[in-house]
Design a protein that fits this description.
- The structure is a single chain.
- By secondary structure, this protein is mainly alpha-helical.
- Helix content is 56%, strand content 9%.
- It has 2 helices and 2 strands; from the N terminus they run ββαα.
- It has a two-stranded antiparallel ribbon with strand order 1-2.
- Strand 1 and strand 2 form a beta hairpin.
- The longest helix is centred in the middle third of the chain and has 43 residues.
């Protein structure tokens, strides 16, 4: 089958041989995936920031009553808290650590 990678052995090590054009396409896809991964990390971090901000605003609104009482039954505040919890659920454990990510692989 033309264009199908072949298994070869070079210096006793198993490797894959493929046409140069197919290798170039593979490298282009790898770069695109890296770019998309970086964008997703940025979106996750932004969503984390927004959910934290939403919690802060909900807390401030919950304590901002003029008579000094804490009004936690407000539908708006309850919805803000619900959406903040949902955003945290979507982002998982929160912000990605700086530097290498667990999904990164050593490139050879």
């Amino acid at each position: 089958m033309p264009g199908k990678p072949r298994q070869v052995v070079v210096d006793g090590k198993p490797m894959i041989a493929m046409p140069e054009k197919q290798f170039e396409n593979l490298m282009a896809m790898r770069r695109q995936l890296g770019s998309q991964t970086a964008k997703l990390r940025m979106l996750r971090d932004t969503l984390t920031d927004l959910s934290e901000f939403l919690d802060t605003v909900a807390e401030a609104l919950g304590t901002a009553d003029t008579d000094g009482s804490r009004e936690t039954s407000s539908p708006l505040i309850a919805e803000m808290r619900r959406r903040a919890r949902h955003a945290r659920g979507v982002t998982g454990s929160g912000r990605a650590p700086k530097g290498r990510h667990s999904s990164d692989h050593t490139r050879t």
